[in-house]
Design goal:
heterodimer; A: alpha+beta; five-stranded antiparallel β-sheet; 11% strand; B: alpha/beta; GMP Synthetase, Chain A, domain 3; 2 domains; eight-stranded mixed β-sheet; 11 helices; UPF0353/GerABKA_families (chain A); membrane (chain A); Spore_Ger (chain A); transmembrane (chain A); transmembrane helix (chain A)
Chain lengths: 506, 371
């Protein structure tokens, strides 16, 4: 085939562009000002040292590596390997390895400039952002650490929480040009091997030139790219990630991304906040139900307003008619038009708030909420009732803890409003049925997406709409098909608890 | 296949816009219809629509232009019996007239004597109108009643609706389109409806109209009678009964909780026996000072019991004379009799013996020795 041929040629060209010898490589790199390449000369030994000063912590090189090279007992590369108090020094001839290690921030020591025989000395990297409080998924109770852009820090955050050898981190590289490090992490013995293999395969088969963030990766490896719903959760909370790993899920960490990707997931998990696990189950359940109500409200409220005011005047309680009609009577547009106008206004506010610098963003909220809202009612653009509904539904949409799910829900409103205008409540029902059937078909890593509901899995419902007490959640989620299904032995818990016999003063 | 579906969705999208809509501020919602029979199968039909507050939204600062909520409030025209008034009155409508929010339908006595048949059939087939609307008889002229002004500022339709609704919570038996249809189409039952009357600038609920099939045959006057009918038709909670135990000395039984039980013996004989047990439980709230006698309890209790018993039996005898069955005794007899002979029931109904047994329990709250 024509396109295949072209592809082959492109690949060949690709190989042609990469340097063939170490001299070529050095020559190429020397053009960049942050590349240090010089000859080290001492009485007993001479060598060539090269590194990127922009990547490594130069101070530590001067302190920990270079002084050792001046010692009298160093005569060869192997001496260096033995003498420098740094672990994991590699000896290699492999040009590719040298190149990639150089780019990662290692120090390369050669005996001769032209020979690929060299030592790769790992160095202390320049520090990125410190571990900070989570900003997107804030919580009131619970750990206050968030992932940062450095992959190694992120792994350490996880490993601190999962101090067992079974915690497996597999590193691979994604991105033809960027060569981004992606770590596949899971707990061996809990995670399902099939899931792990699927993720591994999807990562290997991925054809992209660069990769910056977990969300990009999620879009690239998701089961259905055309779906408005996210199929994998990206989270900035290490505690949430660790909890997912303990359940038997898989987490992907991407170098340069302050988010980890949890997979597979089901739809309910997008409405669970980490706070739910740090409070008593009554409150957790109450807030979960509140969030679910919020979702339904934000999706349907303005659409039902449009449907009822346009077609089903019979359904309005007679006492409400008066206020609805008087507030509608000064409005110029049809219910659908005013709903769209107001929804767009809210979306504009949100978008403007997201794009503007924080300090200006605060004013936008006040200007938008109070000034534009009341002014649009007074100008006869929208009715008072709708203003309340739309503001409430916008608010409700933001209760969804997962940002990508929240945006999906916000956008879902528009097709439903349009359907409401076309066919009234029937249209709302049809549109809802359409989305439900889409959800039915959706999978996450091949696992059904709306799993505890359909197919019905009672044991998984225990941590969905209602969070049962932890004592009743002895099993890991069934849809993950974990290797080890039990979190703990329920019988033993019962035995230990024993029978309660109240003492006389109780 | 997928492509075909997509193509099919496009006209669906565009044709959806061709649907007739009923945007609430662009229609006139009829809330009351009145029918006055003028003979020769012709009626004067009257509709009223509520007139919503004038002026723009409060605090609009004059924005939004003049309010469009202020609309016509009533119209009437001569039409033939059993036709929808909505279409007839369309030429008078400032905006499209819709009947979906109908609350009350009024008939004068002449129309009820003429028969409701066509109207009932028509209402039964109209999906737009809910079943909780009240069918009401008017003493006098329904057009007059609908087009007059009253002390209250709310629309007359809601005035009537609230009036009847509130009374049906208490002494009047429940009667709306749903129950009228049930009793009309049901076996051996006859519908009934409340009667209202205009008295100067008031509307008063005066009694209950009894219908044989769809035709007016008689009436019960006052809430005492309504109370009696209600005890036989439904179990209820908030009735009240006024008992005159001596001339000019009254006791009012309040918050009456009433329940009934039926028994039928010899349901297939020529003279069936129907036994009704009515249990009433209520507070004595309004007592005469003479109540302070030591033996008020048994005196009042037995007094009320025998009075209600006599009244009930008299009422049912009256029904039998009129050959009308608003209680649904035929239906009760059928449900208590194995192999019930339905065909001969209409002949046997006037000869049936109705026995009432009344138990009254006085809850001793609110009674104290006044000395």
């Amino acid at each position: 085939m024509f396109w295949k041929k072209k592809n082959d040629e492109a690949m060949k060209e690709d190989q042609g562009a990469s340097p063939k010898t170490i001299e070529d490589l050095l020559l190429q790199l020397k053009k960049s000002p942050d590349f240090s390449h010089y000859q080290h000369l001492s009485d007993t030994f001479q060598c060539w040292i090269s590194f990127f000063s922009s990547l490594v912590n130069v101070e530590s090189i001067h302190r920990d590596i270079l002084p050792f090279l001046y010692k009298g007992n160093i005569r060869s590369l192997s001496d260096i390997q033995e003498q420098i108090p740094i672990e994991k020094i590699e000896r290699t001839n492999d040009l590719k390895l040298i190149q990639s290690k150089l780019m990662e921030g290692c120090l390369i020591i050669q005996e001769k400039e032209s020979s690929p025989k060299s030592l790769i000395v790992p160095t202390v990297l320049r520090e990125g952002r410190q571990v900070q409080q989570p900003e997107i998924e804030t919580s009131i109770i619970g750990p206050k650490e968030a992932f940062v852009e450095s992959l190694d820090t992120n792994i350490s955050l996880l490993r601190k929480r999962i101090p067992i050898p079974q915690f497996t981190v597999e590193q691979s590289r994604v991105g033809k040009v960027s060569n981004t490090r992606v770590c596949l992490t899971y707990i061996k013995g809990i995670a399902n091997e099939e899931n792990v293999n699927t993720v591994r395969q999807r990562l290997q088969d991925l054809e992209v030139d660069h990769l910056f963030d977990a969300s990009t990766l999620s879009l690239n490896i998701s089961d259905n790219n055309g779906s408005p719903f996210p199929q994998f959760i990206d989270t900035e909370r290490p505690d949430r990630t660790a909890a997912a790993l303990f359940e038997g899920k898989i987490a992907l960490l991407i170098d340069g991304s302050p988010n980890s990707l949890i997979l597979p997931t089901n739809v309910v998990e997008y409405f669970l906040a980490s706070d739910d696990y740090y409070t008593s189950w009554y409150f957790a359940t109450a807030y979960r139900l509140l969030r679910l109500f919020a979702v339904a409200f934000s999706v349907f409220s303005s659409a039902i307003y449009v449907a009822i005011l346009t077609y089903h005047y019979q359904l309005i309680p007679i006492d409400l008619l008066g206020s609805l009609i008087t507030s509608r009577s000064v409005v110029t547009f049809s219910p659908m038009a005013e709903a769209i106008v107001l929804e767009l206004m809210i979306e504009l506010l949100r978008e403007a708030g997201a794009r503007l610098p924080t300090k200006v963003g605060q004013t936008i909220g006040i200007v938008g909420g109070i000034v534009i809202g009341t002014a649009s009612v007074q100008a006869g653009f929208t009715s008072n009732v709708l203003l309340i509904l739309v503001a409430m539904s916008a608010l409700a949409a933001f209760t969804t803890p997962n940002y990508r799910m929240a945006s999906a829900i916000r956008l879902l409103r528009f097709p439903i409003i349009v359907a409401a205008q076309f066919l009234g409540l029937l249209g709302v029902a049809l549109c809802f049925a359409f989305f439900v059937s889409h959800l039915l078909k959706l999978t996450s890593l091949g696992r059904p997406f709306i799993e505890p509901i359909y197919p019905l899995r009672i044991s998984d419902l225990r941590d969905s709409f209602i969070r049962f007490p932890f004592t009743m959640q002895s099993e890991r989620p069934m849809f993950l098909r974990p290797n080890d299904t039990l979190r703990y032995n329920k019988e033993r818990v019962k035995q230990k608890a024993g029978k309660r016999e109240p003492d006389i003063d109780e | 296949m997928r492509k075909l579906l997509n193509i099919a969705a496009v006209p669906l999208l565009f044709l959806g816009g061709c649907m007739q809509d009923n945007i609430i501020d662009d229609i006139l919602m009829v809330e009351a219809e009145g029918y006055d029979y003028i003979g020769n199968d012709q009626v004067i039909g009257t509709i009223t629509t509520p007139n919503y507050a004038q002026g723009g939204v409060s605090g609009s600062g004059g924005g939004g232009g003049p309010a469009t909520a202020s609309m016509m409030t009533s119209a009437s025209a001569i039409t033939y019996d059993g036709r929808s008034l909505v279409e007839k009155l369309t030429p008078e409508g400032q905006k499209a007239i819709r009947a979906g929010k109908l609350r009350v339908q009024l008939f004068n006595e002449a129309l009820l004597r003429h028969g409701l048949k066509k109207l009932i059939h028509f209402r039964n087939q109209d999906p737009d109108v809910g079943r909780d609307l009240f069918l009401v008889m008017v003493d006098g002229n329904s057009k007059d009643l609908l087009q007059s002004t009253y002390q209250t500022a709310i629309p007359v339709s809601r005035y009537i609706y609230d009036l009847i609704f509130q009374n049906q919570q208490q002494n009047y038996p429940r009667s709306n389109l749903s129950t009228v249809l049930y009793n009309y189409y049901g076996y051996n039952t006859d519908p009934f409806m409340p009667i209202i009357k205009k008295e100067q600038d008031h509307i008063v609920l005066t009694g209950i109209a009894l219908l044989k099939r769809d035709q007016y045959v008689g009436r019960l006057n006052g809430q005492q009678e309504a109370f009696l009918l209600k005890t036989l038709i439904e179990n209820f909670n908030y009735g009240f009964y006024d008992y005159t135990f001596k001339p000019n000395q009254h006791v009012v039984l309040e918050n009456v909780n009433s329940s009934r039980h039926y028994d039928v013996k010899n349901g297939n004989s020529a003279e069936p026996n129907i036994y009704a047990t009515v249990t009433l439980k209520g507070y004595v709230r309004q007592g005469n000072p003479l109540l302070a006698t030591q033996d008020y309890y048994s005196e009042i209790q037995t007094g009320i019991q025998s009075e209600i018993k006599r009244a009930l039996e008299k009422m049912v005898v009256g029904f039998q004379k009129m050959d009308v069955d608003p209680i649904g005794i035929g239906d009760i007899a059928r449900s208590y009799t194995r192999h019930f002979d339905e065909r001969s029931w209409p002949e046997r109904y006037p000869r049936a013996h109705f026995h009432a047994k009344v138990k009254v329990m006085l809850v001793e709250t609110g009674i104290s020795n006044v000395r």
